[in-house]
């Protein structure tokens, strides 16, 4: 076992006992990136010199009181870090060499406990996509089969974590962007309750849906990271003023007596039978562990995709307005007028998917169409949220598939945006409802392709799904398997 393949808990124990140093751990991750990333294209901004300098300072102090002290990580390329290029994998910022002068709240909180930032991971442009194929740096590839996608939009973070290029990575989840790539790459990912973590300093796509989360190698690591980054932030008014539980303290309580619901609407026609089989086998494992498994209904889930792809483009249309070449974005030469300047800057800077969503959103918000589209979509969102509230009146946790299939081939949906949008069919209702979801491996399909499942909890219910995830993980070994890179 190499140092970069250690879990956070395992690395922390060795750091405390002085069996390894943070510098050694950081160098191991750097060496792994240099070796493996040629195949998967997960890391697009490297911060290696600063990372090694920070690791040496941590070793000199010799105090490893916090589990994340001296632990190397990567951040999705939408998290602002002072002095580190942050481009959202878009030419509109890449061509300007944008370097933020400040830290996001999440990276600042990790810096406060002396975690070591290695750099930035690939993402769909401004997180718009389900496969990390829209990045201006090129697609990230699945570490299990490099002819396939890593998922999106946090595909770089998921692939890097699964390939042991870091001990954990930061991601964002607007409609499944942590859970789906975690499933495709065979690692563990957490999408938190909306407002549990701060969005300050993270480039927005859809502000009412974006959630900050993490990708890691096991459930315990997710709990450790969440403990460090969760909580009220005065710089983000959407964060909830609610207590942050001690997530690691309750992990080992088991699931005996826990009520787990299987939503019948999530086992649909056209779903890969290998995916359905793996998720249902996980439900049986929970029965063996003492949980009660029952069917639940989420009847409005069938309308979630339609509502989501009205709400998201509408918010995209507003959020992308700042990238006009004046406030943010690259400059253009010889414009004929201010309007011409805007048109040239945005046309050359944005990719096809971003332009598509801006146009859809601008149309949906325009006079005469706002009530017919945006207002109706918000009503559907309320119905989806109520479905989950009613379901959690009878169960503690909901168990569901994450994607209809394992990782698909690169380019499979390039010419069919609708097919790409349907990849989110099992994940977007959770974001519309604002509830937490934990993705973890539950099997493998033919070709050694990982299959993931998601555990869903009520609002602020991260504690119960982490506990349920940990129990399943201890009873199985899916999370132990590694890709051969």
Question: Can you tell me about this structure?
Answer:
- The chain is an alpha/beta fold.
- The protein has a domain at 3-255 and 407-480: Amidase signature (AS) enzymes (Alpha-Beta Complex).
- Helices cover 38% and strands 14% of the residues.
- It is built from 16 helices and 13 strands.
- The chain has helices at 8-16, 22-40, 48-61, 91-94, 105-112, 155-162, 179-185, 219-229, 273-288, 304-319, 338-349, 352-365, 371-391, 417-422, 428-433, 462-475, and strands at 43-46, 72-76, 116-121, 141-142, 145-149, 168-173, 188-191, 211-216, 259-263, 292-296, 397-401, 437-445, 449-456.
- The strands form 2 sheets. It has an 11-stranded mixed sheet with strand order 1-3-2-6-8-7-12-13-11-9-10, sandwiched between helices. A two-stranded antiparallel ribbon has the order 4-5.
- The longest helix has 21 residues, at 371-391.
- The two termini are 14 Å apart.
List keywords for this structure.
eleven-stranded mixed sheet, two-stranded antiparallel sheet, 13 strands, alpha/beta, 16 helices, Amidase signature (AS) enzymes, 485 residues
């Amino acid at each position: 076992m190499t140092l970069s393949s250690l879990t956070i808990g395992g690395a922390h124990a060795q750091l405390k006992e002085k069996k390894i140093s943070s510098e050694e751990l950081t160098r191991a991750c750097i060496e792994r990136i240099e070796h493996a990333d040629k195949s998967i294209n997960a890391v697009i901004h490297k911060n290696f010199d600063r990372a090694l300098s920070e690791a040496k300072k941590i070793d000199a102090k010799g105090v490893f009181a916090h589990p994340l002290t001296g632990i190397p990580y990567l951040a999705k390329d939408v998290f602002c870090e002072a002095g580190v290029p942050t481009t959202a994998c878009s030419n509109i910022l890449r061509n300007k060499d944008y370097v933020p002068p400040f830290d996001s709240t999440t990276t600042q909180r990790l810096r406060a406990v002396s975690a070591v930032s290695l750099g930035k991971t690939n993402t769909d442009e401004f997180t718009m996509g389900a496969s990390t194929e829209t990045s201006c740096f090129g697609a990230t590839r699945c570490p299990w089969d490099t002819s396939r996608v890593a998922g999106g939009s946090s595909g770089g973070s998921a692939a890097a974590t699964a390939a042991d290029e870091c001990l954990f990575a930061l991601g964002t989840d607007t409609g499944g962007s942590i859970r789906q790539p975690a499933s495709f790459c065979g690692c563990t990912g957490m999408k938190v309750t909306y407002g549990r973590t701060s969005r300050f300093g993270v480039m927005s796509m859809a502000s009412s849906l974006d959630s900050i989360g993490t990708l890691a190698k096991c459930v315990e690591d997710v709990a450790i990271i969440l403990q460090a980054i969760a909580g009220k932030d005065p710089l983000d008014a959407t964060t909830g003023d609610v207590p942050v539980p001690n997530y690691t303290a309750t992990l080992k309580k088991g699931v005996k007596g826990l009520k787990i619901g299987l939503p019948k609407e999530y086992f649909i026609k056209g779903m890969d039978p290998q995916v359905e089989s793996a998720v249902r086998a996980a439900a049986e494992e929970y029965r063996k562990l003492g949980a009660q498994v029952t069917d639940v209904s989420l009847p409005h889930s069938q309308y979630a995709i339609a509502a989501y792809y009205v709400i998201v483009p509408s918010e995209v249309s507003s959020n992308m307005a700042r990238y006009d070449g004046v406030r943010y974005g690259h400059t253009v030469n010889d414009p004929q007028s201010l309007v011409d300047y805007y048109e040239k800057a945005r046309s050359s800077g944005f990719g096809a998917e971003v332009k598509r969503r801006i146009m859809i959103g601008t149309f949906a918000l325009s006079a005469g169409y706002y009530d017919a589209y945006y207002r109706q979509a918000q009503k559907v969102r309320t119905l989806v949220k109520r479905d989950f509230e009613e379901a959690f009146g009878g169960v503690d946790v909901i168990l569901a598939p994450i994607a209809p299939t394992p990782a698909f081939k690169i380019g499979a949906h390039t010419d069919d945006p609708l097919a790409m949008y349907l990849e989110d069919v099992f994940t977007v209702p959770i974001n519309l409802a604002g509830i937490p979801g934990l993705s973890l491996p539950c099997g493998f399909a033919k070709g050694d392709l990982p299959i993931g499942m998601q555990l869903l909890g009520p609002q602020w219910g991260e504690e119960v799904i982490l506990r349920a995830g940990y129990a399943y993980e201890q009873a199985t070994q899916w999370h132990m398997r590694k890709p051969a890179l």
